[in-house]
Specification:
The complex is a heterodimer of chains A (381) and B (258). Chain A has 381 residues and is of the alpha+beta class. Chain A has twelve helices and 16 strands. An eight-stranded mixed β-sheet of chain A has the order 3-2-8-9-10-11-1-12, with helices on both faces. Chain A is globular, with a radius of gyration of 22 Å. With 258 residues, chain B is an alpha/beta fold. Chain B has helices at residues 18-25, 27-36, 66-78, 86-91, 103-110, 143-155, 166-173, 178-182, 198-201, 218-227, 232-239, 247-254, and strands at residues 7-12, 38-41, 54-60, 79-85, 134-136. Chain B has a five-stranded parallel β-sheet. The relative contact order of chain B is 0.13. At the A-B interface, strand 5, helix 9, strand 13 and strand 14 of A face helix 2, helix 6, helix 7, helix 8 and helix 10 of B. Bound molecules: iron/sulfur cluster (SF4) (4 copies). One iron/sulfur cluster (SF4) binds at residues 273-279, 312, 362-364, 366 of chain A.
């Protein structure tokens, strides 16, 4: 795929290929040296994991999502991408939970330090949605945008192949339409698919946007899509956009929050918040890490690793003498104002793409859209 | 080598020995530990007791008898650094259930001659009796964390045993949340990390073996457990197990019955 930050070439005319060709696509990607990561059923959810074949896709499955609740449900058809985003975002693969930075070994009086090599692995991300691609673009700015870049992220990121999918269902907690980040894929991709699965037809309308995407698509049994098929694909996306489970009018959210830093709503949400950190862990844009040192008992070997951290932990804001954000109010406020307000100042965009994960996977169902709405409503009086 | 090896003391109070066995359980690391420190007193591994002073004392067990209440002060006097290990030592253990009842009634049921039993009315954490330098949580403790604490002590650095929620570990591991996806009650959001989210990794809810996390919001979690169908007497019991006497869990269990 083209490098970070380069805008995508205009996609070609749409092609269409039958469901049977999906296996050929997987083989082609594997043949080009990619490790395939895609959706599969595990432990009662649709997660992203290594997939060996089309049989491992969640064929005929969907999900029901609301605040603090996720359940698999059967679809009435054989769609393989007929679900909304699941518990894990792709940052697990590009910006993994743990990343070793260096190792050191003592030889007598000498200490030899070895930096961790950057990964050379090539990942094909199968079935990535518009919101998650937007999230990757945001993490690009955070982790590779400035003078201090994360070489591990950069290396993984530069080698990905993106098979994006336009959403055919909106989850109960989705609000990408409000955040202008979906459901239609607009960020850089290699291939973008729209699944058509009705009236005895099961096929993918496909667009290629990069040279590699074109080569891969050319190797599949396909034909140009008809006008009707292109319209049908557009209708799928339009239907999804019209059925968002949540909305969060984004107009002026930054200013709204920044002028309400002492709002009583922070106390109300803090009474419910467990400060567990789940929201930041599942958020596809949250990027914070801490560093952990390890040394063995004999003091011969040591290492330093980076590990996901969260602004909900006390250690996160620990400075000499204690944690700056000791109260749950201040921690929830940090999370929400960073996502929706100060992210603009720092990185030039919102830090939220409306994927809804923080709502679904909050054990007590705290809803970022509801919190914004409550603060907004209080100003109307 | 000119420098003397640090002396490690392992002391047992009211406990099941499970935590000491965690150390014996790390065969490979134990050899390194035995090479790096002089293990001066280790009732489970050797009978030999060494008098004198200890650079690092690991204390297992709670204070449940008058004799132990006196002995812990002796251990403290002999120890440069005192680290408590396990739920008994850090919170009073499962035996702290007596704190919610009349211990004489228990003794009458269990022993033929309860008058032979010299016991205190409560089982309490070591830190309620003497100054403690570091607490390692868990019932039982994680052997990796124990090796980490010893390694950190030897290197003169802070042990990496983060006090955040078990959820953080659960998510690092890539688990699917059992509470959200299955409706299984889980104490993970209020529980101190350390076990590697063991139970959720096997599709079970967390039992709270590591005690309260750094900022537990137990009433809010209880509310969610109620929504999942947990009744009052069960709530009292889930908050009242191995860490029953840890203040946050004790307060929460007391909200649901005597
Ligand atoms: S803040 Fe919530 S909805 Fe927004 S991107 Fe993060 S997880 Fe998704
Ligand atoms: S919301 Fe918190 S965890 Fe997420 S990026 Fe901001 S400070 Fe980091
Ligand atoms: S908002 Fe929800 S997920 Fe986030 S820390 Fe609070 S309780 Fe946990
Ligand atoms: S399964 Fe339990 S520990 Fe894991 S994230 Fe869910 S609530 Fe937290």
């Amino acid at each position: 795929m083209s490098g970070i930050g380069t805008s995508s070439a205009r996609p070609d005319r749409s092609a269409i290929f039958p469901i049977e060709a999906l296996g050929t696509l997987f083989d082609a990607l594997r043949g080009r040296g990619y490790r395939l990561i895609g959706p599969t059923l595990r432990d009662g959810a649709i997660v992203y994991d290594d997939i060996a074949s089309v049989d491992e896709l969640p064929r005929g499955w969907s999900d029901e999502q609301s605040g603090g609740r996720y359940r698999l449900i059967r679809r009435g058809d054989d769609a393989v991408f007929g679900y909304a985003v699941g518990p894990h975002s792709w940052k697990r693969f590009l910006h993994p939970p743990r990343q070793r930075l260096w190792r050191a070994k003592r030889h007598g009086g000498e200490v030899q330090v070895t930096a961790e090599a950057v990964p050379e692995e090539r990942l094909a991300l199968i079935g990535i949605r518009a919101c998650d691609l937007k999230a990757i673009a945001i993490q690009d700015r955070v982790l590779t945008g400035g003078s201090y870049l994360d070489p591990y992220y950069k290396a993984r990121r530069e080698r990905i192949f993106v098979v994006a999918v336009n959403c055919s269902v909106a989850g109960g907690t989705c609000f990408c339409a409000s955040m202008q980040s979906g459901p239609k894929v607009t960020e850089t991709f290699d291939l973008a698919l729209t699944e058509l699965c009705d009236d005895g037809m099961h096929a993918f309308v496909a667009e290629a946007a990069t040279d590699e995407g074109r080569v891969v698509l050319a190797g599949l049994p396909h034909r140009p899509a008809t006008g009707d098929e292109v319209d049908a694909a557009a209708a799928v996306v339009a239907r999804t956009a019209a059925s968002m489970g949540r909305e969060m009018p984004s107009e002026g959210v930054r200013e709204l929050l920044l002028r309400n830093l002492e709002h009583p709503r922070w106390d109300e949400v803090a009474a419910r918040c467990l400060t567990c950190g789940n929201c930041t862990m599942v958020c596809p844009t949250c990027f914070c890490t801490t560093v952990e040192d390890a040394s063995d008992v004999t003091g011969v070997e040591s290492s330093r690793s980076q590990r996901w951290d969260s602004c909900f932990t006390m250690d996160f804001s620990y400075i000499h003498g204690g944690s700056v954000r000791a109260s749950p109010q201040s921690r929830y406020r940090q999370w929400m104002t960073h996502k929706l307000a100060t992210w603009f100042d720092q990185f030039g965009s919102s830090g939220c793409v409306g994927c809804g994960r923080c709502i679904t996977w909050c054990p007590v169902g705290i809803d970022i859209t509801e919190e914004v709405a409550a603060i907004r409503a209080s100003e109307a009086h | 080598m000119a420098t003397k090896k640090p002396r490690l003391g392992v002391w047992k109070f009211a406990s099941c020995d499970g935590c000491q066995l965690s150390l014996l359980d790390c065969e490979d690391e134990l050899l390194a530990v035995a090479g790096a420190v002089d293990i001066a007193y280790f009732p489970e591994a050797t009978r030999s007791t060494v008098s004198g002073r200890y650079d690092l004392s690991l204390v297992e067990g709670s204070i449940a008898t008058p004799h132990d209440a006196a002995r812990i002060h002796e251990v403290r006097r002999r120890s440069r650094t005192l680290v408590t290990i396990g739920a008994c030592a850090t919170a009073g253990g499962i035996q702290a259930l007596r704190n919610f009842a009349d211990v004489r009634e228990y003794a009458a049921i269990v022993y033929a001659r309860p008058d032979y039993i010299a016991t205190l009315a409560t089982s309490t954490a070591i830190a309620e009796h003497v100054r403690v330098d570091f607490e390692l949580r868990g019932c039982p403790i994680s052997k990796h964390q124990l090796v980490e604490v010893i390694s950190a002590f030897l290197a003169g650095r802070r042990p990496v045993t983060p006090p955040h929620s078990t959820c953080v570990e659960c998510k690092l591991k890539g688990n699917v949340c059992v509470m959200v996806a299955h409706g299984t009650p889980c104490l993970g959001p209020a529980t101190h990390a350390g076990c590697g989210a063991l139970c959720p990794s096997y599709n079970r809810g967390c039992y709270g073996c590591y005690g309260p996390m750094e900022s537990p919001n137990t009433p809010a979690l209880t509310k969610q457990l109620e929504a999942l169908g947990v009744d009052q007497s069960t709530l009292r019991r889930v908050w009242r197990s191995f860490n029953a006497n840890a203040p946050a869990f004790r307060r929460e269990s007391e909200r649901h019955g005597p």
